[in-house]
Amino acid sequence: MDIKLDPSRDDLPLMANTSHILVKHYVLDLDVDFESQIIEGTIVLFFESGNKFKKQSSSTEETYPSESNEACKLRTPEPCHIPVTNTRTVSSKMGYNDFVICGKGEKDTSGKDGNHDNQEQASGISSSKYCCDTGNHGSEDFLLVLDCCDLSVLKVEEVDVAAVPGIEKFTRSPKLRNQIVRELVALPADRWREQLDYYARCSQAPGCGELLFDIDTWSLQIRKTGVQTATDFPHAIRIQYTTKPQGRSVTWTSDQSGRPCVYTMGSPINNRALFPCQEPPVAMSTWQATVRAAASFVVLMSGENSAKPTQLREGCSSWHYYVTMPMPASTFTIAVGSWTEVKPEICSSNDLATERSFSPFEADFRYVGGCGHMEYPCRFQNASATTQEIIPHRVFAPVCLKGACQETLLPLIPPCLSAAHSVLGTHPFSRLDVLLVPANFPSLGMASPHLVFLSQSTLTGMSQFCGTRLCHEIAHAWFGLAIGARDWTEEWLSEGFATHLEDVFWAKAQQQLAPHEAQEQRELRACLRWRRLQDEVRNSPEDMQVLRPNKEKTGHVSDSGSSVIKHGLNPDKVFMQVHYLKGYFLLRFLARRLGDDTYFSFLRKFVHTFHGQLILSQDFLQMLLESIPEERRLELSVENIFQDWLESSGIPQPLQRERLAGAECGLVRQVSAEVAKWVRVNRRPRKRKRKETEEVLEKLLPDQLVLLLEHLLEQRTMNPRTLQRLERTYHLSEQDAEVRHRWCELVVKHKYTEAYRNVERFLQEDQGLCNFQTSKSVRNKHRLCTQARGDT
């Protein structure tokens, strides 16, 4: 089943056979070992099987073959006779009490030696005659395929859920293990607490037979001898495994205070190097996890409860998190480090009242009708939660950044959350943790359910840079998480929406800002994005500029449910923002065409209709156009939008026409005037005539400074006197990271050695911005910055 990818395309394979069997719940029981830089333990998977999954996996009845499916049908594993010796059997360190869900007293905010390596797997699949059949239609054994890489799997076994004490209380078939699991996963949403408790008890049940398994580059394949269908395959299995220090799903590093930490960093391969799972987004599941680490560490996860540590033994603590909303496995996030919680110096009683949490347990949910998603305790059905403007939130950071977080970040969270609620309505998630991640984090931010990572770069300069980035990540709670893309190639459904909404949220969060000032700022940011999009289109491959690269095959998967993500492993994607920028301009175009009031009224309806579900581009566009009277559509159609915006490279023609016809906003004209002044300053001789008047320079906003420096970068030469005055006039070394980035480009271009210290600081402290910036030209500038660092 080992897929050989085309190195020129670097597509990412999703191997799991989700059309035949789906994971409904994961129970993780893990230990974090900083000395060995591994995470080890067990994961128990609870399944549901049935042909109904085929309808969820494809946008139409037609499917197309993928490499993974063909490979599975043709490959015959070689005999494996490696003796299974010296294998350490990890006994569970977790009892039932570790899984007790919070009761009334707790506020519920609802490769070591002996490991079998991927390359030399002692799997027990020893017959060369064995041929895998991932469906339930052949005469050979059914094969469960999970997405997996960079893991050492030690053991796979069926779990005897029938041995759980008291299991007969809620099942009609206490002796039929698969039937027990079927009834467990089918419990109604108002019994979520009981369901989690029985998942935990079942996960601790004894094994009742080891299963045969094999590993290749991208997958873990499991079978039970004599079981030929997904229906008869064990519906609860336990996998004992360890991660590897070099595994690509997590990063082992030190925080800004020099203390060790580990976190999931948004890898292109997602979480398959953290635990075996089903990666395709259609495999939406719940999970609960117990994680043990040294008592000095704090464990943060994307769970809906605000976990508190439980002391297990001297020097060791246990943390337990869970979620009740089914989500793709890629949204699972963990961060373990010596974080400190950043609290406001003064907390008003009004804030506490506003931020009161509503757990699924105490909420009065309406389970019949109203929502189109699978059943779960949904906040959109909770009248109290729908009016909650500010959800409970916490901030964690290394000790050395505590003061900066208190001053810059903490005051921004309530107004940004409130602004988001005023635009989109109900917060999909019940709480929010924000973590300031280590300097090597490869982006400015990353959103997960209940947990946001922010780069330290967001803390410098004025509040705008931090505020807009925070608003971007908050927007992902609705677009990217509560509403996800069914096909991961349609990234614009997440990033385009978040980019468009960050401006809207931030304008509302600045309560003192007049409407015309907010509009001016939005137009200024549109100008900056227009320049970046032009740069990106000039300097990136055409086939990577397309927002819907699979076109009419978008959302299609193979018969087994496997597929590939086009360009998913291409290293250039890290630097590209085309999905952010073209997606932003498409939504801006539609909002202007409809009018803001009409557009955002529609967007709230769209969120209410599709939260908790996966969508394709046509789902959004069809509902939007259906909400517009025919006489106002002005030749807009799904087909035209596909052709002009989503399925073509380059600049969309409607956007070209809009930019050519549009007049510059006042803030942009002000920058143009300042650029002209600086050009004149740069041209003056060292000795000026006495009658020459000094240029009067205006104070500029941070975004205006970015635009000013971008224009000055287009100048062929700038002398050291001009650069020195430029730095002193605007205090450039004290500005936010985006301004300092443009300043460093000027410094390097003109070899202004007196400011090389600024370049050194930028390269050390703003690595997230280095990776976030776009296009080949920008990457070349960073190469020059690296050369400049060598000169200092």
UniProtKB/TrEMBL annotation:
It comes from the Eukaryota. Residues 666-784 form the Peptidase M1 leukotriene A4 hydrolase/aminopeptidase C-terminal domain. It comes from Delphinapterus leucas (Beluga whale). InterPro entries: Aminopeptidase_N-like_N_sf, AOPep, ARM-type_fold, M1_LTA-4_hydro/amino_C_sf, Peptidase_M1_C, Peptidase_M1_dom, Peptidase_M4/M1_CTD_sf. One of its GO terms (cellular component) is nucleolus. Gene3D superfamilies: 3.30.2010.30, Neutral Protease Domain 2, Peptidase M1, leukotriene A4 hydrolase/aminopeptidase C-terminal domain, tricorn interacting facor f3 domain. The gene is AOPEP. Belongs to the peptidase M1 family. Its cofactor is Zn(2+). SUPFAM superfamilies: ARM repeat, Leukotriene A4 hydrolase N-terminal domain, Metalloproteases ('zincins'), catalytic domain. This is Aminopeptidase O isoform X3.
